[in-house]
Specification:
The chain has about 150 residues and is α+β, with helices and mostly antiparallel strands. The protein has a single domain, classed as Glutaredoxin (3-Layer(aba) Sandwich), CATH 3.40.30. Helix content is about 30%, strand content about 30%. It has five helices and nine strands, in the order βββααβαβαββββα. The strands form two sheets. The chain has a seven-stranded mixed sheet. β6 and β7 form a beta hairpin.
């Protein structure tokens, strides 16, 4: 998994509208990249909505936001439109970006093990250097966790 001091990985993926988003689009800006397991599930909805509800505070601190999961574009679009998110959601079906950040890991739930996205938030400075990793994301307090730095 990416750690503090690591550089923002090179990536290119598509957002909820099928538009290409590149890591270079965010250089010169502070960036929050949050990974979530599945669009429209309770925990992921709580996290994404909390971030959206506090978008003005996050932007005031200079942050750009980017949500990423392995959901298809169609699912990301429905999720985005349903809640009116004011930031892009990337559809990383190939898991290329997810793997570069190291958040595709073995998970355990109700006695079974499986591979999946570990809910994680990465914060990068204007130079694309990771300044914080939040690996114990509180879905209903995601924005507060970012702002408490």
């Amino acid at each position: 998994m990416l750690k503090v001091g690591d550089k923002l990985p090179e990536f290119e993926s598509v957002n909820q509208d099928g538009e290409v988003v590149k890591c270079g689009d965010f250089l010169g800006k502070k960036l929050v990249v949050f990974f979530y397991p599945k669009a429209n599930t309770s925990g992921c909805t709580a996290e994404a909505c909390d971030l959206n509800n506090h978008i003005s505070e996050l932007k005031k601190e200079g942050y750009q936001l980017l949500g990423i999961s392995a959901d298809p574009v169609k699912n990301q679009k429905k999720f985005h439109e349903k809640f009116g998110f004011q930031y892009p959601l990337l559809a990383d079906e190939s898991r290329e970006v997810i793997e570069k950040f190291g958040v595709w890991q073995l998970k355990k739930f109700m006695g079974r093990e499986f591979m999946g996205i570990v809910r994680t938030t990465f914060i990068f400075d204007e130079n694309g250097i990771c300044t914080r990793v939040i690996d114990k994301v509180k879905t209903k307090e995601a924005a507060a966790q970012i702002l408490e730095s």
